[in-house]
Amino acid sequence: MMPYELFISLRYLRARRKQVFLSIITFISIAGIFLGVAALIIVIAVMNGFETDLRTKILGINSHVIVMDHTGAMRDPERILAEVARVPGVVAATPFIYSQAMLKSGSSVTGIVLRGLALEEGLKVINLGKIREGRIDYLREGARIPNLKPEQEGLPGILIGRELAKHLGVFLFDTLHVVSPAGVSTPMGMVPRMKPFLVVGIFESGFYEYDSSLAYLSLKTCQDFLNMGDLVTGVEIRVDDIYRADSIAKTIAGKLGYPYWSRHWMEMNKNLFSALRLEKRVMFIILSLIVLVAAFNIISALIMIVMEKNKDIAILKTMGATRRDIMKIFIFQGIIVGTLGTVLGCIAGLAVAFNLEALSRFVERLFGFKILPGDVYYLSELPSQVNFGDVGIIVGGTMLICFLATIYPSWRASRLDPAEALRYE
User: Fold this and answer.
1) Where are the domains of the chain?
2) DSSP strand E in 163-231: where?
3) Taking the CB of the first residue and of the last residue of the chain, which one, N or C, has fewer CB atoms within 10 A?
4) Distance of alpha carbon 28 from alpha carbon 35, whole angstroms
5) Whole-prediction pTM value?
């Protein structure tokens, strides 16, 4: 059976002709809570999506842990690989080369990061994303590539990002030149080393910075081009749990000792992820103000209802209602308003958050503009990931604010003196 306090609260929420203004304030309170909850859920989902998508893309094309030598290039990568493989939590490891260079195609020149990739082990550690054209296997020395021009036969292969290919204006199986800053000595002095390469693949990681600046050679080709012999820059490592990468990196560094050192992905991207977490907290605080404004509307609406219902409260008290019963009536009324706004806001927020990418594509097609231009932002799509823990905090926090907003008006109603209220009736 419904408690009579709840029954009276529901009756007070129904508008009469004299209560139209109060009903409008109540509706505004529900709308304010609805907008606040929906906005919080959508924005926090977008922030979670950004963080997850960034982490996925960064950890796709980068390893979880890297090991390098303080003295420069690593001389004994095979021994390091054998030592690292015995560390618990390590899934795969591969040697790599990291260098800066320039790409030249016709009159177009741009600076790049040149990476040497061991094809067999390397693809177990990193993920280049989607190979839009060509094949990564064509990087192998002696790979058979069909339909090449005679002058292209025997050229070493290079794999470049999609944005880099656009910038240089090159296509699959075009020839370009790689220019190394480490020069070669000639009778005319030091001149940059330049060598032709064949574009055997174009990849797209979904991360503009990588797609516009990375180029891959096979490890042996890169060593030959940079005159490194059997040296490598370091060793890249993939671990079974990315959140244990810091402890695994410390274990590896302790096991190898000086002059080797290790870094994990959290250190290498600390500023980026710290900024994202800070922005998430700030957005939560800012959007919570919408809920607080709606809570003040609940307070004002309840105070006006208490003033209008003085006679009703006095009659209830003379019939035996206690102060606690009177408080319950108005607390129930505020909680009903808060629950309605929260439930509707939660439904709307989750509906938008789960379909945000489709909605963003629809808006882009409708108005003919790009919400996240890839050359401005880190990501080219608007990601969304709903964390039900965050949703629970938003719903719980909103209901708490709504409950606190009902306490003062309810307390004022419970302190009403029946004799004063009925004196002039």
Assistant:
1) 4-57+272-422, 71-257
2) 175-186, 189-204, 214-218
3) N
4) 10
5) 0.69
